[in-house]
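Long-time lurker. I teach an intro course on protein structure, and each term I like to show students one example going from raw sequence to a predicted 3D structure in token notation. This year I'd like something fresh instead of my usual example. Would anyone be willing to generate the tokens for the chain below so I can use it in lecture? Attribution to the forum is fine with me.
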Amino acid sequence: MKLLIIDDIFSTNLQVAHAVQDWQDCLIKWVQYPENVKSALSGEAFDLAFVDLHYGRRRVTGLTAQHVISDSSPSTRAVVYSNEQEDNRVLLLLASYYYFEPFAVLPKSAPDEEIRAVVDAARSGRRAPAFAAGGAYDDAAPLIGQLLKRESDLRIWRSLTQHSERNAIASKSYVGVKTVSKFADEKFPVVEDIRSRFLGLEHDVVSAIFQQGSEDARVPRMAPLHAFAMVQAEFFNDPELDELLAGPREMEVAGGARRRRRFGRTHER
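-- Reply from a regular --
Happy to contribute to a lecture. Here you go:
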């Protein structure tokens, strides 16, 4: 059983190694950044990859690592291994399930027995244990497709990470002000759904930022969208999204004849 650990913090490698230290058949390799994953996969095959989502000040995220794995080693199953309690990880977690459907998700606070349970399930060909199945994220993953229906949506979201005024957003996104207004009407219910499921509408960071800001009277939903974009800026500014939105491609799902669209699900649940 070969495990690949992708994390900029070396202690993560030690944590997983400690959890499986009694299993002599578990071999572990650590790479620090997603940019190193392709070279690691070129020389050997891995059964399971523990993928962090956040890499300090680097723009690249765990989405790049999962993309490389799906391209270079589709039989390698991914475990999203991150600090899922932090508000700014929510969209990265949802996007992991929307684009790549990982084997499991574990918080870095997971005890050794939970790490072992996930590794043992993968080694035995079973499904991930219920506590690591990521059910809530899997169920809500189609919301990513609603946030990012078109390439212009990504440009507007990126502008919203810095601006809250409609004209400035339109100018920076290379769209008309009416398009920005329609964007706000379309995306606001989606954002509220994400906040209600994962962040807490009344007490999340978005509420705190929104209460400190000013409202555009012509587009009253712009301020909360701006606050949400600020919190989730790491996701919206991830360069991997440009390729993920460039167009669907087909791929063979490892272990079966079923085919699915690589970049996003083919149907809503």
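Some talking points for your students: The first strand starts at residue 2 and ends at 6. The chain has 14 helices and seven strands.
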